[in-house]
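Table S2 (continued). Query chain:
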Amino acid sequence: MGEANLSRVWPDLAAGLVMGVLAVSISTAFAALVFSGGLGQSLSKGIGLMLVASIVVGILTAELSSLRGVVARLQDSAVAVLASIAAAIVSQMPASATEGEKFITVVVAIALSSLLTGALFLCLGQLRRGNLIRFIPYSVIGGFLAGSALLLTFGAISLLAGARISGYSIVFQMNQIGFWIRLVPGLLFAVLLLVVMRRRPHALVIPLFLMAGIFGVYIFLAATGTSVAKAAEQGWLLGASAVNVRGFMEVGIADLKQVNWALIGQQAGSLVFIAIASTVAILLNATGIELQTGQDVDLNRDLKAAGVANVVSGLTGGMVGYHSVSQTVLAYEMGARNRSIGLVLALLCGIVLLLGGQLLLYFPTFVLGGLLLFLGLSILVSWVYDAWFRMPVAEYLVMIVIMVAINVVGILQGIVIGFVLGVILFVVDYSRINVVRHSLSGNSFHSNVNRPLQHQELLRDQGDGLYILELQGFIFFGTAQKLLDLIRKRMNDHRSQPLRFLLLDFRLVNGVDSTALLGFQRITQLVKAQGITEVLTHLSTKLHREMNEVLTESSTSLRVFPDLDHGVEWCEDQIIGGVQENAPSAQQSSLMKQLQEALPPSAGFSPLSYFEERRAEKGEKIITQGTDPGGLYFIERGQVTVELNDSNGSVTRLRTMQTGTVVGELGFYLGRPATASVVANEPCKLYFLSSAKLKEMEKQSPEAAAAFHKFIIRMLSERLIDTNATLQALMS
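Corresponding output:
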């Protein structure tokens, strides 16, 4: 039993120790980046704050996350921005400002960023809005990450060189030998680590590199006879600057009166954006953890978990932290599956915090700078080099512009530029999407109304006067203008029949903006002036309300129907009625007369001898779904509807059959129960042919039976021709 318990505990203990080493290293490196330059004397207190933040974020996230074994750490994208904020605050502090005033102002700025981030996490998690990430342009996400990585890279170089380095000043530093002497060790460490991680990625590579770098420094010092004190004095070790890591505990609430709130207010935009960018990053990380570990992550629960952790971190003066993909995957590969990993990580950070400078005194600065440089370069390679092969050129260029702008004009300004470019790119790309999904005419697309052969032929001949446009997407002024141009082109097409009906179907339209409504008003005015009837179908309640002014102005020349089928049916009725205004359709469409004419003269009998005349009142079921129809029906006069009855009680119209059509023929020939019901829409006169009578016909007059089958085949073929024409129109 004890061995079994040990086998479960050991992976968590081992993983926790490795994560603890990484947490200490990253906390120290981040502190060295933020508390540098004018804050150099406060580095030890900064390290202490970062260690406390690592403890808080590590424990609370591991305990509250939906995933056992998750590892959370302070985040590099946030620290890059915080380093810029700290540098800006220190540079603008009055010359008389003390080190303590600078320190407390920067710490409050850091704390506010964590509190804002935590509050946003909690709000989104509580409202269950974890999927909001999908609405942020990919190029903006990539631009921020790449821009933050470049800031982090320059910050790492500054740490290695011992002076603030930017994109401008690095050019002037490159001709100084001292710059290269301090930079090369950390640069080699970062590049070698990056190459190994890209070619042979493994969970233990980074911890092993950290240990190798530390031991390598002391081997070099021993070989050259350089003392530890001299190495610390020359800046190769943290030395005395890291001794008092618990010095931050000397700062109390009374020190808040020293905060320069005006300078913090100037950084409000960057602080808010840290919260927004961190929200994007945590959701990306959580999704990455799902993919890498094969475990489901409850995004909303983990947002709340990280929210609590960041609020507590902010109250202690710590920075932003949340889930780490690489370290969680490392823990899983080491077999860790319990929440105790966060406790072990926190324990190691706590030991360093208690023992303070005695452990960090001998930490090589080039290893810290190299680790930061690796983090920055790895993100840059992913988003600048790898992204070139997976992103469209336009989106890639937007991302590069954001990255450069963040480092040239500022973080907030760079993001604003990126969003503006992203919106422009979206509008350009969206305007290329055809607002018309299908462009159809009445001679190829028909309603679900089975009409007699004469009417079918008439619609094929005259149907081109009906122009059907199935619209899609969100319609704004640009796409509405393209729609207007398309309609005008059809009106001026002299190769086609004159346009009588314009049908616009809105089933796939998500919405329209106010500028698009002006476009629809122009379309309505145009077709009205030409005597064309406009038909609108599938208008949602919202669209109907928004287009109310258009509908009111054109009430006499505009028709609205609930769906495309009924709209097309109405247009077909107008076409047929206009052509055959004075012809009684019942006489022209008599199937019995057509069948009599189709029979050979040698048949010598009337088909009425085999058919039974029947009557059906309005609403009467002629065929019931699921039963054997027993035969087929000729609709001599009247109209019926074929409808499907669902298990939930809803009824769907499949087809409407008019005078001169046949119904029930498929079940009749296949010998299967009816798959739908047939209901009379009005009083009907029907002729019924039973299976028994058909067999009698086949026995008594094979020639007449063959002519009858040929007659039915012709009717089915006409339907098939119409269906094929519709499919070709939809596919073109």
